[in-house]
Amino acid sequence: MSTPHRPSKPYLVRTGVDGILADLAEGDAVPPERELAMRFGVSRETVRQALHELLVEGRIERRGRGTVVSRPKLVARLSLGSYTEGAAGHGRTPGRLLVTWEDIYATAEIAESLDISDGDDVMHLERVLLADDQRIGLESTYLARHRFSGLIKTFDPATSLYAAIRDSGVEFGSAVERIETVLPSPREAALLETTTAMPMLRLNRRSLDTGGDPIEVVRALYRGDRIAFETMLT
Predict the structure, then answer these.
(1) pTM, entire model
(2) Which residues have CB under 8 Å from 30's CB, separation 6+?
(3) Is 128 within 8 Å of 187 (Cβ atoms)?
(4) CA-CA distance, 205 to 176, in Å (whole number)?
(5) DSSP secondary-structure letter at 57?
(6) In the chain, % of residues over pLDDT 90
(7) Biggest CA-to-CA distance, the chain
(8) Integer Cα distance of 85 and 116 in angstroms
(9) Which of 17, 49, 83, 218 could form a disulfide with 205 if both were Cys (CB 3.0 to 4.6 A apart)?
(10) For residue 142, how many other CB atoms are within 10 A of its CB?
């Protein structure tokens, strides 16, 4: 006769904490490690492991010296639209903080993606993406300067770049996007107010207009504890 499988202590603690969170509201304090360890009869290290899993999943978050229940993740649809449209569509207030807006020389990779020559002028726009004042992501956009130089005088970096591009007479036609999991650099983690141990979702996008000409190259990094992506398959 086989021996019945017994759930591990970390699993039992995780299940128990899930039950506690179910009775708490957003912003409520999570019981401290010492209290949870005594309640479940385990070590604080075991409790810490369970809390770390919940932190990565975005169920809880650190505030000051304590831990509270976080609000549900922003679920963004993978589509040819702006971050502003996606966040607003889910009842969240979008925002952006400008980090860098500069002219750079195109690398071979960016030049190929934008169908320009190596060393041509490229506009580089880097912004922190916000949802209800929470830092969600870090977005870097590269545009061929000769095509979008008019944005320098008219574009407000706190607003939607897609809307500004459309207003300039350019219509988005298609895009190829790749998503992978990475860990942030110290600089990226600082800008997103997290640690280098927080899993991130990295999106690389190349957008084309309706005539098939390149519009942009985007490299975005999103906090895995605060956002998820979905798409419809048919």
Answers:
(1) 0.76
(2) 17, 20, 21, 24, 51, 60, 66, 67, 68, 69
(3) no
(4) 6
(5) H
(6) 51
(7) 77
(8) 30
(9) 218
(10) 24
